[in-house]
Amino acid sequence: MVVKSAYEPALETVLKELQEAVASEIKRTAKFRTILKRIHNTLTNIQPILYESCRLSKVLERPENEIKLFILQLKDAKKLVQKCSIVKCWNVYHKFVHANKLFHLDNDLLRFFQAELQDYTNSSMMFMTESYALGYKLDQVLSTVTERAGGFSSSCSVPKLQDFIIGFDVHLQELKRLLFKDANQVLIVSAPGGCGKTTLVKMLCHDNEIKGIFGDNIFYVTVSRTTSFKTIVQKIFSHHHHAYQFEFQTDEDAKNQLESMMRQMGSKRMLLVLDDVWSESQSIIQNLKFPIPGYKSWSHQASPHDGRQINVHDDLVIKMVKSCKGLPLALTVIGASLRGQSELKWRTTLKKWSEGQSIFHSSSQLFLSLRASVDALEPLPILRDCFLDLGSFPEDEKIAASVLMDMWIELYNLDKEGMYTTEYLLQLYSRNLLNLNVARKDASELEGYCNEHYVMQHDLLRELAIHLSSQEPIPLRKRMLIEIHANNIPTWWTEQTQQPFSARLLSVTTDETFSSAWYDLKAPKVEVLVLNMRGKKYTLPHFIKTMNGLKALNITSYGIYASELHQLPLLSTLSNLKRMRLEHVLLSPSIQSICELKNLEKLSFIMCEIGNSFDSLSFNSPPMQLPNLTELEIDACYDLKQVPARICDITHLEKLSITNCHELDALPKGLGCLSNLEILKLHACTRLVKLPESIGDLHNLMFLDISDCLSINTLPDQIGELDGLKVLKMSGCHGLEELPASVTNLSLLEAVICDEETSYLWSYYESDLSDVKIDVVEDDRLANFMKIVG
What we know:
With 790 residues, this protein is of the alpha/beta class. Helix content is 36%, strand content 12%. Helix 5 (92-112) runs antiparallel to helix 7 (122-135) and helix 6 packs antiparallel against helix 7. It comes from Tagetes erecta. Belongs to the disease resistance NB-LRR family.
């Protein structure tokens, strides 16, 4: 039996010394000030436990070796804190590692005193939960921010401004005047599309005077049709407390916690910007009103310009503007049709739209005007189909260009190399039918110029694609685009479960309240299936097993949390499946069923929680049975620590991409068995220490990307045996101090893409590699990546 008081003085002393060290370093260095302040707050919250014997006694009831070990850890923590001022600003790798250790220190402190903190007060409990979420995984946050971007990030940061903006000064001053006016709590900015509403509001958020008033309490949230109030508050809390996960049970709970947070902020002021608020989302604005002094607001009114009096409420006008998606043409046409109409006409029109009726049913003129852009594609029928396929994805979400290209390859029998699919993508972009966001500007021809791009589409153009795809009777449509809110399955579906459909493309979008209660669906001709979800749990529809002609499957969760995917073994029946992409889902050991897909050619895991799912692919398991798999992609899977050695059984693999996996520290020793590998991408695997020596056996390798692999400090001598290598990307490899002399044997090497620091290493071999182009790129991606730590 441990005497409770034996370790009490030692524990109090070491915690006090740690607190003093933290306070000292906060004053001395700015590099780690944010996390140091958080550790200081943690220690402050622990103090009541040390000074109340009943609580401290609970701590000291633990086994003796546990308490002794914790005291030793605290002594080491003091040394860790004191090293903060030694870490150099320019050494991004050491800065990253040191910050990670500080996060784990904060986590360990909270975990050791967790039970006692829970007993302390409800407010202490709230603090502990927030801080624990922060320390849960630094790299988990990093892998999210490294993009896919914005897709599932909980950040509420204000988007960047474009470089040159003119003509907004007067409007900005007026907006600031109204913001500071003592009136209500909500300021609504509305104007036709293209007038610069978003630019104006972003200018406001970046204004020095505004930032001086609100400081870090400026939150920018984009709202879509399916965004819930809980989701918005989760984003605010996650951003405010720098935590990756934050969850509320109900809207009421979220509202109460938000109001509590705002009251705790005291005199600090808060600015919340909601972008793209739908007419159905007015309740969200109402929930964001609080009886707190200094919480301001204002409402901008919309009215006709011809001087005629319309007896409709201003909120109806604002809702109508929002429903027109800000498109000038829609505002003009719909506005003209409603000018002079009764308030009842306005309300019934809005009600029809909210119930799912297309805006084009209200105005044939608007439909015909917008359709003209699509009619221009008639001489290019495949291009027109590609445009219509864009309606398969949720509103206001980024679409990976590679997803579209995979669809089009199978639907329209295009080249697998992506040349034609890239051309179609660029043609739609040149015709202003979509927006193309460039993720990485240093993409090369070998890896595919558009593979890392993202596509977005104006809301009305998306609705036009859906409307045009819905012209034929349901059983005869080429593409079925279904949206399910809650469990409200379309009536036609429940009534026609026995009738087969002719669609080649099926897209089903569900929200966070969908319970996976599926009805039967006979769609034997479906070649591409797109499942868009938001719920934390999702069961695959049982009718998948009847889709014998399915060639491409895309399953994506657009919620804050990765969706737990059930009934994965259903996929093993898809004998003709060639391309499968799982994005932001939580995998299970049943992933083994994917290995039974004999015709699978491309497999992608994007932002997935791997967990122990790859354990079923251990050495004790049978060799992987994917005889036609040529491309494997694993991106931003933050908890991937090991690549299954069984992957080396897929000797016919041609492209292997393992990127943004920050827990991965080693590759399989047998990597060289992939004798047909042509492209190997390891971008931003920040803990990867080295490349296996067997890499020299990859004689067909033409492209190697190790950029932003911060922990690689040497390259194996066998690198010189890559006699087929043409392009080597290695910017951001700051731990690399020298190159092996064997690089002079890379006879086919054409280009090295690197940062300025790494280019000096190649200068030693300039005479031996005179035909190699050293392309020096700016290291801005790594700089932005590391700002998360700072």
